[in-house]
Amino acid sequence: MARSRLAAFESAGERGFIGGDGRDLGLDRETQSVRPRSGGLMRGISLARQDDYLCCHRALRHYENFRVVSFFVPTHLRPHFWAIYAFCRAVDDLGDEYGGDRLRALSRFEGELRRAFQGKATVPEFRALAETIDRFRLPMEDFLALIEANRRDQGTVRYARFDELLDYCRHSADPVGHLVLALFGYRDDERRSLSDATSTGLQLVNFWQDLDRDLAQGRCYLPEEDLDRFQVTLAMLEARQPTPEFRRLMAFEVERAQAWLSRGSALEGMVPWRLSRQLRLYRLGGSAILQALRKQAFNPFLQRPTVGPWDTVRMVWQVLVPGVML
Known about the structure:
CATH topology of the largest domain: Farnesyl Diphosphate Synthase
Helix content: 55-70%
Distance between the termini: 35 Å
Largest sheet: none
Number of domains: 2
CATH architecture of the largest domain: Orthogonal Bundle
Radius of gyration: 20 Å
CATH superfamily of the largest domain: Farnesyl Diphosphate Synthase
Number of helices: 16
Structural class: mainly alpha
């Protein structure tokens, strides 16, 4: 959520994080006036809700490692991906960037979510989300878990054991995979478990990618048991010292994240082709960031590891032509 969106939330009071016409969220008149009217994109979506889904589309301009809505997502599902993604981005930004009382803001956010489940949403993004929730019978608990993860971030800045970090991932990442599967009609335990592995792997990738940023905010997701094992202290981290011990620690964390991504890859063979390609793109994106960390000799302080243009071309090619390496 851009700074203007956070300011809009602060000034919007009980209306939520969007004003009545969307302009205070950066939804310009040009975007408001353009409503897809042809076949696929808004198929089955009422005219009254189409502008609300376009508000959700604005969230896609926020920087992210992986394109959430890509060519591989069926056209008629894209607006519903927008709605889910807008929710995920907004709740994360409230938890990470909001300058006011974050816990209060998250409680107001939850209140609007509950109104959406009751069919009484007052905010454009939540009105769109309400339609998606109703159409795909999405459970409230996955949305509540995402809010809970951001509540935890306000009070928990360290994790003693990896098991505790995994529990955080069950709230911060795994629910997103559940919601995506539900859009495609899958709710079985086997697919959800594999999705959890991929989602957890991607969350771990994000932790190690943003280690420098998180430390600047007084937060560290490296488990204390791992710091002790590799003889790395918090003082070393705060000093941004890429000691041999620290590099060995990061090598361990990189390979563990890779193992989680690999564990979830079996899901790609258990879903329709388009979703399979999308999942593969997520996995390859996470793996590309881990490879960038390897190339930096496991020093995330050197620069923030990202997916470059050539990496993106290579990933898309690998997604379209499995087994081909560039």
